[in-house]
Amino acid sequence: MMPLGLRAAAVSLFLLALLLAAWHLATLPAGGRQAVSDEYAKLVGAAAATGQRSAMPGPLEVGAKLLEHLRDPFYDRGPNDKGIGVQLAYSLGRVLSGFALAAATAIPLGFLIGMSPLAYRALDPFVQVLRPISPLAWMPLALYALKDSHASAVFVIFVCSMWPMLINTAFGVASVRREWIQVARTLELRPPALALRVVLPAAAPTIFTGMRISIGIAWLVIVAAEMLVGGTGIGYFVWNEWNNLSIANILVGIFAIGMVGMGLDQAIGRIARLVSYAE
Question: Nearest to residue 251, comparing CAs of 42, 66, 32?
């Protein structure tokens, strides 16, 4: 029997083929969709000749546009004319900067909340009030305070990335078996050693789950943030192509967003597995 991985890949390719075929048929000229046979095409020749093509580009047109972008993804011909690779690099830089700042803040704070009932009771009201606020609601305030669109976008990524990591870290730390902590205290491990040698390995899977959620949210939010502030980034690229009425370029941008988002998630997942094996 074919291995599960190969069967899954075959099903995925089959579904992709169906999707592309449906997309291609949906974007054919009206007459082309109706002419299902030579005889019928003769009967509807006039309608077929006058059938207009859908405004939505088909997969072949989008594929050709994608290849065009891939031939020179890093060109820079001015503020409003940069390659898709340059735009993705700007977006990735903002996401990784904000994500790193959020991790440096949320993980230690999550340890404190998870290990201290007092810290949990004191900080939980702040978390519950701030967490539901849309990250984009902070953008006007960030622009006013920081006076820089790049720094404001990084701040918004910091805000949206922090909560999943904070909550998952606190939950993972609080869920560590009490017996392990009691044994470590019996061995007179100091709090820093206890956190690093006992609590962190036990809570690592939950922490990495929070990181995967955070990176996904961060990549989603940066697209919307760049549409608001403009300048550079994949979000700005998509919005600018909408202003140019280039639907094919918009679809290329959407495809690039999805692929990079999947890559970021897979990278965090791979690191999580390596950490688990090392333990």
Answer: 66
Question: Integer distance in angstroms from the first to the last C-alpha of the chain?
Answer: 34
**Percent of the chain whose pLDDT exceeds 90:** 58
Considering the domain architecture, whether residues 79 and 124 belong to the same structural domain is answered as: yes
Nearest 10 degrees: Cα torsion 117, 119, 123, 124: -10
28 φ/ψ sector (left φ>0, alpha ψ -120 to 50, else beta): beta
Burial class of 272 by CB neighbour count within 10 A (0 to 12, 13 to 18, 19+) = middle
Domain count, the chain: 2
Q: What is the DSSP letter of 33?
A: H
Residue 30 has pLDDT above 70, yes or no: no
In a domain, 193, yes or no: no
pTM higher than the cut 0.90: no
Q: Are 61 and 115 members of one domain? A: yes
Contact 157, 94 (CB under 8 A): yes
Does 50 have pLDDT greater than 70? Answer: no
At 27 the pLDDT is 86
Separation between Cα atoms, residue 112 and residue 173, nearest integer Å = 9
| Residue 221 domain boundaries | 57-174+209-278
Residue 168 lies inside a defined structural domain of this protein: yes
Alpha-carbon torsion 58, 59, 63, 66, what sign?
Answer: positive
pLDDT given at position 17? 94
Q: Which residues pair with 82 in a beta bridge?
A: 76
Going by pLDDT thresholds of 50, 70 and 90, the confidence category of residue 123 is: very high
For residues 136 and 21, membership in a common domain is answered with no
Residue 61 CA to residue 46 CA, distance in Å, equals 26
Q: What is the DSSP string of 85-135?
A: HHHHHHHHHHHHHHHHHHHHHHHHHHHHHHH-HHHHHHHHHHHHHHTTS-G
pLDDT band at residue 175 under the 50/70/90 scheme: confident
In a domain? residue 198: no
